[in-house]
Amino acid sequence: MKNFSKYSVLALASALFFSCGNAQKEKVEAATIGPAAVATDSLSKAAAQLGKIEFEESAFDFGQIKEGAEVKHTFVLKNTGDAPVILSKVNASCGCTQPEFSKSPILPGGTSDIRVTFKSEGQVGKQQKIITVQSNASNSMTTVQLKGEVLAK
């Protein structure tokens, strides 16, 4: 009977020792996972708080023009996101196409214009000019295009 009591006490002490270790381990795991979950949640909220650019039209077809003519077109974009958008750079795929844009912040729900001038001198044939827009929006790089055909003089 004494041996049984000794083993019972040893088993009980072991059970308490290991169960306390598991409880401590669960607390450590919860503390480790907790901040990561909070950080991920904060990143998700921050990502949701970005602006987003949407153009009224992704391409403008100017049809047929005679060589030497200039085509001017205005692309209108809207910020459909939750934070202001700032256009940092607007480039055209060719030196014959010049974009103009505002660097003022575009508030959520607001619009802005990108005015494009295409000079057709020396550009005979089918044309497709890509205008690349870089910004701080969730879709940080977007494009629109100007296309048509230039007929020889």
UniProtKB/TrEMBL annotation:
Keywords: Signal. Residues 1-23 form the signal peptide. Transmembrane segments: none annotated. It comes from the Bacteria. Pfam families: DUF1573. InterPro entries: DUF1573, Ig-like_fold. The keyword Signal applies. The keyword Membrane does not apply. PANTHER family: LIPOPROTEIN-RELATED (PTHR37833), SIGNAL PEPTIDE PROTEIN (PTHR37833:SF1). This is DUF1573 domain-containing protein. It comes from Sphingobacterium puteale.
